[in-house]
Write a structure and sequence with these properties.
- It is a single chain.
- The protein is mainly alpha-helical.
- The chain is built from 15 helices and no strands.
- The longest helix has 19 residues.
Length: 289
């Protein structure tokens, strides 16, 4: 079940509705519709949500309206209902705790934010490893560490999301892109290139074209400083990736011209801004020299 695809199909008239096959599918569709500005579609499914899900929906509406006080009110209601005997829902409770963690971080309650995020991450992993909410919680936990300057811990969080699953491809792609930024900050450039390559192709596979362009341009930007036919292909680098031994020097970053050519051929067909066009031109000149 891909919420974005379902919303797009309803908007185009290809689909008239959706019958839920898994718990909380309709909540995911409602939130996706809200994010895309399709409030009519969200409201079409809203009456089918249970009371906890409706509170989460109202929380998201208040959040999008920048009403922090109302957002907290709806989130509190959702959390209280998720713990009642009649409505008990462990998945929603964990999801709500994740949202509380994000909300607390935004208002400066950083320590409690970390407590909520870690609790939610561990509970979601135990209940349904690889679920969208589990992946999102890991990403938020990594960002929490990053904002505290704990780059190693942030990378450790990203390592919990394997490129081989069970997480969704979109989650893997976002994780690899964020990990690449951390690796650049630590001057682990070759590892950053590898992660950007995975991220780029993951975004392409899921039609997240803007994100694919961003990852692709970032890969080109840091890779063209050393283009060499002696470099292994990115696919081989991904396949052969392994942790470095203690004291082992960082590998010299390099990309193979064939990989650069493949990336440029794809990027040339995309809508790029002036900075992107300039970078592509520089890379093409380098290949032709």
């Amino acid at each position: 079940m891909n919420p974005a695809t379902i919303v797009d199909q309803i908007r185009s008239g290809e689909r008239t509705g959706y019958t839920s096959s898994e718990p909380h599918d309709l909540l995911l569709i409602c939130e996706q519709a809200l994010g895309q500005g399709e409030t009519e579609i969200a409201e079409m499914f809203y009456p089918k949500l249970n009371s906890i899900e409706q509170s989460i929906y109202q929380f998201r509406m208040a959040q999008l309206g920048n009403d922090a006080e109302l957002a907290q009110t709806h989130l509190t209601t959702a959390l209280q209902n998720s713990r009642t005997r009649e409505l008990r829902d462990h998945m929603l409770e964990a999801r709500i705790r994740m949202e509380w963690g994000i909300l607390r971080a935004s208002i400066g309650e950083h320590e409690q934010a970390g407590v909520d995020l870690r609790w939610a991450m561990e509970r979601l992993g135990a209940l349904s490893e690889g679920h969208r909410w589990h992946g999102l919680c890991i990403l938020n936990m990594a960002k929490w560490h990053q904002n505290r300057g704990e780059l190693g811990m942030a990378l450790a969080m990203h390592s919990e999301i394997s490129r081989n699953g069970p997480h969704h491809i979109e989650i893997i792609a976002v994780s690899r892109r964020n990990a690449a930024e951390l690796l650049v900050a630590k001057n682990h450039i070759q590892s950053a290139l590898r992660n950007l390559w995975i991220s780029h192709h993951g975004f392409r596979q899921t039609d997240m074209l803007d994100a694919a362009i961003e990852s692709g341009l970032h890969w080109v930007d840091i890779g063209i400083s050393n283009v060499s036919r002696e470099a292994q292909s990115m696919d081989d680098a991904v396949h052969n990736a392994a942790p470095r031994s203690v004291g082992e020097p960082l590998p010299k970053p390099a990309i193979h011209p064939d990989d650069l050519c493949l990336m440029l051929n794809w990027l040339k067909d995309q809508q790029l801004d002036d900075i992107g066009e300039t970078l592509i031109s520089e890379a093409q000149e380098l290949l032709q020299s």
